[in-house]
Here is the input.
Amino acid sequence: MSGEGKVVCVTGGSGYIASWLVKLLLERGYAVKATVRDPNDPKIKHLSEFDGAEERLQLFKANLLEEGSFDSAVDGCVGVFHTASPSILSARDPQAEIIDPAVKGTLNVLSSCAKVQSVKRVVITSSMTAVAFNGNPLTPDVVVDETWFSDPAFCKESKYWYHPSKTLAEKAAWEFAKENGIDLVTLHPGLVIGPLLQSTVNVSIQIVLDIINGTQSYPGPYRLVDVRDVAYAHIQAFEVSTASGRYLLVGKVTHFSEVLKLLHEIYPTFHLPEKFGDVKYEPT
Here is the structure.
């Protein structure tokens, strides 16, 4: 097992991607220090049920907005996977509830990493929302690659609050890493789908659940990627010494009409809409 004898940290350890990451890391022999908001929350029970959890999983209480909150969790780790960030699309106060925790939380985690010499690499879970949203039409001849960044001003004008949170957090991370000599890799998944390990429904799975529950229309297209592939990509980003920079994680680009068709095939007894209503989609 490639992780045997190595200690790593996963922030936001009970999240959708993070839960799979913790599971796979334990399977590879790593000792995992996972941060959560409340170690006594029954919603994180699934973490303790993973193979190897009893022997090699420690839970730490941490707050994204609290400076030094991640010090004990990253101490002694050779790698840190920062997945913790608000995964909500709207809020009464987007700056305070979405953007500030994402940006300040990222800097707090990196500050903790900079205090110890054991950390060899930090892998941050960013998003395609930090890449492709700049107001320019995505026509068939346009190639989106790792050089793209979303425009926070455009996103805020469009009321895409999650998008600038990921964009600004990533930019802050690259600046901090450069100034403090941190080996950083960022990963940018599209809409993450696949099996749930936790007992709660996350934002991306909620979209599919909305279709099952009768949503009549959905704009598109969507950049889909399997949660297990995303988790494994995090491990590769840490283990492969030549990994560097930004990686876009997309398995398939599709319209949700295809998802609806697939749901009809898998769940023929469900009362699903036959098709979506017409929705004008402006690719951005």
In short: The longest helix spans residues 94-114.
